[in-house]
Amino acid sequence: MTTAPSGTHNFKVVLLGEGCVGKTSILLRYIEDKFNDKHLTTLQATFLNKKLNINGKRINLSIWDTAGQEKFHALGPIYYRNSNGAILVYDITDEDSFGKVKNWVKELKKMLGSDIVLIIAGNKVDLEHERTVPLEEAESYADMVGAKHFYTSAKLNQGVEELFLELTREMVERFEQNTRTDSNRTSRVLVVDDEAPTQSTCCLGYRSN
Amino acid sequence: MIFASKMPSLRIDQSDLKCKNGCDYFGNPQWQGYCSKCHRELLQRQRRAEKASSATLPKPEQKKPERGIKLASHSSFSKFEEKRLRQSETLKKANLLKFSVFKKSSTDEHDHTPERKPPEFKIPALINEGMKREFRVRFTNLPPQVDRDARVFVHSFIMDVIKCSNVMTVDELSERVQRHYQHFMKYMDTSPHFANAESEIKELLIDFVEKHAMTYLHDLPGVVFSPIGTEDERLDRAMSERIQQLSWVGEKHLECKLDRTDSACSQLLYKAISELLAVDGAAGPGGKLSRVRRACRHVLALCGASASADDLLPALIFTVLKANPPRLVSNINFVTRFCNAQRLMTGEGGYYFTNLCCAVSFIENLTAESLNMDKKEFDCYMAMPASIGGSTWAAALSLCGAAREAAEQRAAARALLADVATLRAEADLLAANADSFEKEIAFKVNDVLANTPLEIKPRREPLRLSSLRNSSIPLIDLETPVDTPAPMKPSEDIPQIKLPEIMPVEEPVTVTFDRTTDEKITQNIIDFQSLEKPSPPKSPQNQPWELKQTGSFELLTPSPLGFTPFDSRSIDELMTPDDFGSDHLAPGLSNINYDIDLSDFSGDNSLAEDTPKEPKDPFSPDGIKKEPVFDPFQPQTSQSSYKNVLEKFDEFSLIDSKSNETSEAFEVVHRTQDSCTPAAAEEPGDPFSPVQKEASILDDSGSPTSACLLPSPLQPQTR
């Protein structure tokens, strides 16, 4: 891995999930670490750049919120194109949203292979008593698809920080794997590098999609 | 040389522009006067000949690098042309010939392609200049090598893209461009020039490079923006039509929470739309991205507080539908292909741009289901002429535009008002300044006057003269009046004394004068001789008098008597009636020259009959004006004829070399008039009337001449 003094890792992370599962809330909660609570309501959290420092590596996270409505589902590929990580959010009180997550996972696996780091987040654990998605089912599914599972509560600020931290760590790891085994390298690596000729191909994807 | 070279260009004929081979295409001096096609054939023939005979033919005068590139483009030419033809074929099939740009480029290509080349290799110099300038402003603390590197990179980048644009498909070209970016980034990481640069600076640099390279390339037709070989333009048109068809889609269909009655809402929408429309105008991908970003921020604001992506996308779709931005697909494709991929993937601009892509994609694939509406209803809407739908929003937006304009003008008016206020304040200040300045000046003037009150002292010279003279001639008590600084009082005194004295003397003389030389003199104003002739008969004593025309300089000449010379001023002052009255007979005054128009005198006499003539008199206006000041003489001046006479005085100089008595002759003439006229006028209020009586007594003193002579010279003084 080329870590030139100025070389920061740029990672793109998309938040996917059905509408009203709390994607935006999670993002807002994550931002809240930087901003005052009072500002929470006025923030327009659709996009966030977050700088991290993990193991001495400077990392720049670009977190993209996406529209979760069903009618925009078809636009997913445009959103998650070139993503390094995806956070799939479901509502533990809403079985359908978990089904949607499964769909997303399938789609992502199909489109991006194993190069994308998947995190499944069961949100709204503060509503534990209304849980409809069994905990075991969710975790076993996550294991099956090779994703990490987190329980979060944007309201109580539970698990959000951990979620992003773990995601970042995973992405760095995945990135380093990819650089080690050049054959695995794909265009999704966005870090400035000498050997990323394939990167540009992804830019042409728009029409093809 | 100049002529030879310039003359022909003045009458250039169209045939001169044509290819030398006589084909219908235009030739180009760069192609030795051939059209591109003929030139290519020529070149090929030459090359073949070279190969065959290995005898070097004289090469065309082109420079080497240019030539190399041209050859490269030639080799690619056929392929390129073929591609184009294919393109135009498909277009024709699709009945999309309205694409004037396309049509033009395919039909004119034969001319265009070669002609475009030469400028393409000159313009980078301009880019160099622009880059240098901007670099100096933006990256002040980077070493100059960086500047140079950037420029070298941009140059080679542009050259490479232009070279490849004809050979490669757009996707290949895009890949190549991205690789260029990568190379530059890698270079920045490795080169010592950039050792000190922060990563942010490097990002700015890559943006800088991208901006300049792409801005130039963007404007080249069919290279990177809606390139030849793509369907971008057709898609643009299709998208535009589609959006028009969908103009009936409202905020409800998209489930976005917009309040069309809220003016703030429509204002924001208006701003977002104008930003979206401006995307097409921005040249570089960076510029386009920032426009999109601004537009999306407005849209976000439109969604209200705590808007999420769930709100943003519908609102953005709605905005795009209402905006119908020109060349939307081309712009999107341009950015996706040629923007630095890294920024597109990570930056905020990239995020919003992606949202825009989503919106466009959504609009493209919009169906009844995606709007949650019945298929039939949807079809009905789609069948509806585009002009019907969406009129409410269109109206709202147009109103919004008008309102915005009004607001702008109101703001402008307010600014103007503020300006007016300040202007008025400044004007007041200025007025106050002027006022105080005036006062100050007045004060200073008064001060100066107070400090130096006796500018008038020179007058005393005449006093000396008069005293000298007085010894010889017991004249008048005028010495005292002379002393007094104020001219007015003495002036009154004098006439009082003199006027009457003249009276008796005059009358006989006037008669004679009239008879003898009346006509002659009136005609010749300045005839001295004519004056002299008549004078002897009146009084033999006249001889000592010499009349001559004088310039004012004579006044300056020192008196022959050895008295202190009169400067013009002192003389002038003396000429106030009082002074004169006292001095005129003094020997010291012998040098004073009075301009006396004797002819006028005669005229005066005759004037009783003749109406005033000689308007020509140059001095007449002056005289008239001055007269009123003189109280005693006013009645006389009221008679226009008399005025003339007075003025005439100036034209003649009277030198009395001897005694005063001789002068009487003149005075007589004058007096008669003087005395008579007031009487004739019968002005009761006349100050002279009493004076005259007294004067008659004084008459004998021999001063009378002064009386008649006085008026003309005095006038300037008194005023």
UniProtKB/TrEMBL annotation, chain A:
A Gene Ontology MF term for this entry? GTPase activity
Q: Which domain of life is it from?
A: Eukaryota
SUPFAM superfamilies, sorted = P-loop containing nucleoside triphosphate hydrolases
GTP-binding as a keyword of this entry, yes or no, is: yes
The primary location reported for this protein is membrane
Q: How does it sit in the membrane?
A: Lipid-anchor
InterPro entries, A to Z: P-loop_NTPase (IPR027417), Rab21 (IPR041833), Small_GTP-bd (IPR005225), Small_GTPase (IPR001806)
The question of whether Endoplasmic reticulum is a record keyword is answered with: no
Q: Which GO terms describe its cellular component?
A: endomembrane system
Please name the CDD domains in this protein's record: Rab21
List keywords of the entry alphabetically: GTP-binding, Lipoprotein, Membrane, Nucleotide-binding, Prenylation, Protein transport, Transport
Question: What's the name of the protein?
Answer: Ras-related protein Rab-21
Q: Give the organism the record lists.
A: Vanessa tameamea (Kamehameha butterfly)
Gene it is expressed from: LOC113400970
TrEMBL record, chain B:
Q: Where are the transmembrane segments?
A: none
Q: MF terms per GO, please?
A: DNA binding; guanyl-nucleotide exchange factor activity; small GTPase binding; zinc ion binding
The alphabetical list of record keywords is: Metal-binding, Zinc, Zinc-finger
Q: Where is this region: Disordered?
A: 49-70, 603-641, 672-719
SMART domains documented for this protein: VPS9, ZnF_A20
The residues covered by the VPS9 domain are 233-372
Q: Does the keyword Zinc apply?
A: yes
Q: Spell out the Basic and acidic residues composition-biased ranges.
A: 60-69, 610-629
What is a single Pfam family found in this protein's UniProt entry? VPS9
A20-type domain segment(s) = 13-47
Q: Name one GO cellular component term.
A: cytosol
Set out the biological process GO terms recorded for this chain's protein: vesicle-mediated transport
Q: Which InterPro entries match?
A: DUF5601, VPS9, Vps9-like, VPS9_dom_sf, Znf_A20
Q: What is this protein called?
A: Rab5 GDP/GTP exchange factor isoform X1
